[in-house]
Amino acid sequence: MRWFRQINDNFRVRGCSYILYKPHGKHKTAGETAEGALMKLTQGLKDESMAYIYHCQNHYFCPVGFDATPLKAAKAYRGPSPTNEMEYWILIGEPSRKHPAIHCKKWMDIVTDLNTQNPEYLDIRHTERGIQRRKTKKVGGNLHCIMAFQRVNWQKLGPWALNLENLRHDFGTERSHRGAPEDAEASSKRLAQLGRSHSMGSQRDGSWRRLSHTAEFRQRSSPDSDLEEDAAD
């Protein structure tokens, strides 16, 4: 979707979009059932990185939550129940100021709206009116659908990225193995240089010690040194 890509570019984020459920018309989701779409929708509404748009009546409604109510009141507090024993209600954000901010509609009514084809239609805002007919010559098809949007985190890569990391690791180890003789030669040269520097240092220390001993011997053997000491006393 072009506008979603432009929003991502404007805010410098990465995301993907796709049609979650569209049973009729162009770009229909072949093979997707109402039960499967409901499961994906309810799971995605719990995820902060997911958002949905319910395209209906030339408007973008926004599903923001859901409520699962048991069909039997006795099972209300007995833990999770099968999907066929629950009635799902979808909380939908309203974009128009002429209507309430949030609608609470049955999932089966939304499925009826998505499966109704021209010239028949169901106004999701007024489900009490039932299925109505438009004054149009177009027959078949339906533009209504549910679209999904997801923020992509590139730091959490899939299994294919592990292969890239392994390739990088193998390439690095191969380079290290190839460079092992060179590293050994370089280390031996460094050790030789260090050895020469240590030997030169020891030679310098030895010569300095010999010179110092010679100077001390000369000072001790010369008569001037004794005279200077006597004069100082």
From TrEMBL:
Query: Where are the stretches annotated Disordered?
Result: 173-233
Sequence ranges of Basic and acidic residues compositional bias: 213-223
Supply the alphabetized keyword list: Nucleus
Name of the protein this chain belongs to: Uncharacterized protein
This entry carries the following GO cellular component terms, namely: nucleus
Please give the chief subcellular localization of this protein: nucleus
Q: Which GO terms describe its molecular function?
A: DNA endonuclease activity; single-stranded DNA binding
Give compartment(s): Nucleus
| The organism of origin for this protein | Oryzias javanicus
